[in-house]
Amino acid sequence: MNRYLYDGTADGLLSAIAWIIEEEPDPERVALAEREDTLFEEGFFISTDAIQAESLFFRLRRRAPDAAHTLYSFMMAEKEGMAGSLLHYISLAFTHGDKINGYLTHPDVRDIVSIAKKAGRELHRMKGLLRFEKLLDGAYLAKMGPDYNIIQPLAYHFCSRLRAQNWFLYDIKRYTAARWSNGALQFGSIEQFTTPALSEDEKKVQALWQTFFKTIAIPDRKNPRLQKSNMPVKYWKYLTEKQG
Question: What is the pTM of this model?
């Protein structure tokens, strides 16, 4: 079995997969892993080519749109040690098209599809659970700590829904931020973050919302299990109604 290595980046992974699919007659009999730079590491290193990586994604999207969406969701999960599984999944997708997502008896397909669905579910959930707070300067800030790296698709989602406001998203786990200002979206890193002061209007609105949330609750119909299912506890520290 031929063994190949890549540099550990997303572009490196996809360009390595593109090269293998082009050069190897049977990619399923190929091993692919991140290079560790150890003395006795075996394998042929494939250089990163961002253009080749992008080309692979667009070719897959033309051949199998659903599989391309699965690939995009899987990449958000940032799972280590699954380069070989992704190689086999993409190779099969080019052969079988979108039918590939139904071939769940194949272990690599099952693993890729399962992880992609989890990342997609969190992205969908955060579109409803994210809370923006108005700051003193009039901009809005939403903090989050998702399991998966979903800040980019989440930011694009809010670009079309909060076009008139200036806002920030901040991922406290990854120290990454998205900024929408004057019609332009930017991404960057923030190594040290201190929550800015809230506006007085925001403080009043949060107090009113917390009072409303407690007032409408019907004690006899409380269902903690259902509430935790719809709003997992790990997200509660970012929900205005769960503070205090």
Answer: 0.86
